[in-house]
Amino acid sequence: MRSQDMRRATDPPAADEEQASCTSSEPLLKPDASDGDTSSHTISTWWARSSRRDNDNHTRPKITPDCPRWMTARRDFYYDEKLMRGLKSRCCARLGLGTLIFLGLIQLITVLGGLLIVFVPDGIHRITDKWGQLGHIGQGLSSWPTDFSRGILPIPCHSHNDYWRRVPLYSAIEAGCISVEADVWLFREELYVGHSLASLTPNRTLASLYIDPLVQILEKQNPTTQFHPDGNVSQHGVFDTVPEQSLTLLVDFKTSGSALFPYVLSALEPLRSRGHLTYRNGTQTINRPITVIGTGNTPFSLVDSDLANPHHDIFFDAPLAAMWEGLPGETSTPAPKPESLVYGADIDASLPDGSASEREQQSASGDDMGQGMSGAAQSPDAYTSENSVYASVSFAQAIGHVLYGKLSDSQMNLIRGHIRGAHRRGLKARYWELPFWPIGLRDYVWDVLVKEGVDLLNVDDLKGATKTDWGSKTGWWS
What are phi and psi of 438, to 5 degrees? Predict the structure, then answer.
């Protein structure tokens, strides 16, 4: 019992007793008048008021000498930690605000600098902005006779259904396309341009949309001046950057080929008489600013005839599917894949060399069989650079659907065989009816065809083909 009493005597005083003894030498908060005697304030009241005051101004309360050392340390730690938290919060807020202000100033300076250049240009900008204008440097020097297509670089793309565009012909030239297409219908001895009968109008003719504009463009590109008064110079094409580049006019015969052919031949006379049409002279092809190719129901028999095509300035769009050639040692084409939609020439392409399908035998005597089949020859070797320029086929019919977003090995084999056969005959390979959606799939097919050696990309979206870096895109279709 005595030992227990001794331990009680030596134990530290209870917290309440210690708090009671830790009264401030002077009150932290002045008592209100309603509080009465200050001696009646308990330690808990003092502590609550002291804490409220500290929350307001982070002031540490006074510690009397009677307070035990461990309570003093605990209070110091509590208030120091609270003070540091407040200091850190204020520093972070000020740092964030300062960063935002700094970035805002940089943005403001950038905008003001841009406006300064616009409204107060420097010396070089003042010259380039007003170059060639009246009263400024370069007056009269900003243009030249052949500047119609200044800065336009020709690229191997074909403006499919060009007449659908808001500005036919000119939009394709502006994009750099080296080939345009016109669907032609014969009615009452006039050639109308349109995709269907319902789309034809009296004023949209082959002459008004293509022949007359091309004559005007080429007259501007080949002026008669003091530097060549006799006109004894090489003819310039529509592209000033590459004047020797010929623009192809692909005429798609929509009505009877044999009836339409002489009218197209006659309609080309304004270009022919000025020496603007590419032609064969019997031994070689003479390149000129405009090359005319017949497709659709154009009869090969008339194109290859000296009587029907005496100037030899209308060429043929040969059947690409019939030109498949395997690698050395391969004697026949691969069988069509199940996903391919094949007919006509595509079936012929699946047969060994020297074979002919019933469809091919029928097409030899018909002139309304469609692209590459009207008045067709018995053998694909009949199509050469002497009578043809393009070799084309529908991608959907000859190659088939692109399943799972990627061309199969057999489809790649077909493409390579088509291109190989066309190039051996000196012809340019072209696929029409390419997939156009999804855009990523379209770009993937474009990229594959260009890399495999297709000579002309058949496009409806001129901007997508000529202004977008579609060749670098990757995704689920790659």
Answer: -65, 155
Neighbours of 93 (CB within 10 A): 10
User: What single-letter DSSP state applies at residue 364?
Assistant: T
Beta bridge partners of 359: none
Residue 104 phi/psi, 5-degree rounding, is -60, -40
Residue-wise pLDDT tens digits, 5-40: 444 444 444 444 444 444 444 444 444 444 444 444
Distance of CA 259 to CAs 3, 256, 334, Å? Answer: 134, 5, 38
Cβ pair 354, 331 in contact under 8 A: no
How far is 245 from 234, CA to CA, in rounded Å?
A: 12
In angstroms, the CA 307 to CA 127 distance is: 60
Q: Which residue is associated with the tokens 């000025």?
A: 274
Is 198 exposed, middle or buried, given 0-12, 13-18 or 19+ CB atoms closer than 10 A? exposed
Amino acid letter for position 385:
S
Q: Distance from CA of residue 320 to its chain's centroid? A: 28
From residue 323, alpha-carbon distances to 12, 178, 330 in Å are 108, 24, 14
d(CA 267, CA 184): 11
Angstrom distance (rounded) from CA 344 to CA 165 = 31
**Angstrom distance (rounded) from CA 159 to CA 461:** 8
Q: What is the pLDDT of residues 459-473, one digit of tens each?
A: 999 988 887 676 655
Contact 147, 223 (CB under 8 A): no
76 touches 60 (CB < 8 A) = yes
Closest C-alpha among 293, 300, 292 to residue 374:
300
Q: Residue 197: what pLDDT? A: 92
- The angle, 0 to 180 degrees and rounded to 10, between the axes of the packed helices 409-424 and 439-452 is 40
Task: Quick: pLDDT tens for 183-242.
Answer: 999 999 999 999 999 999 999 999 999 999 999 999 999 888 887 666 556 688 999 999
Express each pLDDT in 37-95 by its tens digit. Answer: 444 445 555 445 555 555 544 455 555 555 555 555 555 656 667 677 777 788 888 88
pLDDT of residue 96: 86
- Print burial letters for 435-454: b (CB count within 10 Å at least 16), e (below 16): beeebbbbbbbbbbbeeeeb
- Non-local (6+) Cβ contacts of 75 within 8 A are 60, 61, 63
Place of tokens 């002139």: 367
Please name which of 232, 238, 221, 230 lies closest in space to residue 169, comparing C-alpha atoms: 238
Q: Which residues make Cβ contacts (< 8 Å) with residue 366, sequence separation at least 6?
A: 373, 374, 375
Choose the most confident range, by mean pLDDT, from 222-231, 324-333, 348-357, 415-424. Answer: 415-424
Residue type, 464: G
Q: What is the CA radius of gyration of the chain?
A: 43
Sign of torsion over alpha carbons 152, 156, 162, 164: negative
